[in-house]
Design a protein that fits this description.
Blueprint (H helix, E strand, L loop, with lengths): L24 E4 L3 E7 L3 H6 L14 E7 L5 E10 L2 E7 L3 H9 L8 E4 L3 E6 L3 H9 L5 E4 L2 E7 L2 E6 L1 H12 L3 E3 L2 H9 L36 H9 L5 E9 L9 E6 L2 E13 L4 E9 L7 E4 L6 E4 L10
Parallel strand pairs: 1-11
Antiparallel strand pairs: 1-7, 2-5, 2-6, 3-4, 4-5, 7-10, 8-9, 9-10, 12-15, 12-17, 13-14, 13-16, 14-15, 16-17
């Protein structure tokens, strides 16, 4: 649990599978981290490291992307945006110790400083989130410079706030007056329902970008030129070598599915490992929902279960189309 606030307590909200999500919630994004990149060569350096097109990223936009190893396996999935005098690179904290040194490996040859930030990360969620951002901060665009930091629009019901330690308490106090307070599990639920991928330490270097649907989320540029792992990513598109995709599954569970957990699939009368949990959320009524990497040729009526458990799980519809031609 984060300890940056002396007056606000962020706890998990008890939600059943059928409950509406809060109209406005302030989320403490413990478990997430931020890398900053500043310097004259920040754009060109990052362009050669990641899957997304950094050069074309407008000042008021953000993008998903992946940072891969030379074999095309992902070290992280991140959201990139303009922040202060450089870029903000929002990702899971659990991969920071291994991924950040790899991102910095060749920076000595460029005019770029790459560091982990100590800024406070908050989420504002719900149907009233955008109106509250407009009211409190003003401005226009999906990425806005605000007092003390940056506000980044994630989707129709979510904003990411990156705030200096000096401003975080004051800004959070203003927003908390009208919002429910939640820990980061509410953010997890949004990500899962919207099928937004992530890489945690337990799944680092396991998936190529298309196996987590990044081609369907405009997180891969196939025209930008070379970057680390680009050959594998291109072969997956043009030669069809990728045999996996990320799906939403749900079912009864006595515990919250964790990244790296095994999901089994039914094969006749037997069960075999079917995939790997990417992120999970447990509801208050004994149901759970998760993102999972699975073979992309399974029958639609395939049944699943968490390894070591008997309860049957089923695949749910994705909120977007998996389009390899994208």
């Amino acid at each position: 649990m984060s300890t940056w606030s002396n007056v606000l307590n962020f706890n998990k909200i008890a939600l059943t599978e059928q409950d509406n999500l809060p109209a406005l919630a302030l989320v403490d994004l413990a478990g997430w981290g931020l890398i900053t990149l500043v310097g004259d060569d920040k754009k060109s350096y990052l362009q050669g490291q990641v899957t997304c097109d950094v050069v074309s990223l407008a000042q008021d936009q953000s993008t998903l992307g992946a940072h891969c190893d030379a074999k095309g396996k992902m070290r992280t999935v991140f959201r990139l945006f303009h922040h202060r005098e450089g870029y903000g690179f929002f990702q899971r904290q659990s991969v920071m110790a291994t991924q950040l040194p790899e991102l910095k490996k060749y920076a000595i040859f460029s005019k770029v400083d790459i560091e982990q930030s100590d800024e406070i990360l908050l989420g504002l969620t719900g149907q009233d989130a955008s109106a509250m951002i407009d009211q409190v901060f003003g401005g226009e665009g999906e990425v806005r410079a605000i007092e003390g930091g940056t506000a980044v629009n994630i989707d129709a019901e979510r904003w990411l706030l990156v705030l200096s330690t000096e401003h975080a308490e004051t800004v959070a106090g203003k927003l908390a007056a009208d919002a429910v307070l939640s820990d980061s599990t509410l953010w997890d639920l949004y990500d899962i329902r919207r099928a937004i991928p992530r890489v945690d330490a337990a799944t680092e270097l396991e998936f190529i970008p298309q196996a987590m649907n990044l081609q369907a989320l405009d997180a891969i540029s196939f025209t930008k030129g070379c970057y680390t792992g680009q050959e594998t990513v291109a072969r997956a598109k043009y030669r069809g070598i990728n045999k996996r995709a990320m799906y939403i599954v749900s079912g009864p569970s006595e515990q919250c599915p964790q990244a790296g957990d095994a999901l089994e699939r039914s094969v006749g009368d037997n069960w075999r490992k079917g995939g790997t949990i990417i992120a999970g959320y447990q509801f208050a009524d004994g149901q759970a929902i998760a993102l999972v990497g699975l073979p992309n040729d399974l029958d639609e009526d395939s049944q699943f279960r968490l390894a070591g458990h008997e309860a049957i799980w089923h695949k749910q519809p994705l909120p977007y189309t998996l389009d390899e031609d994208k």
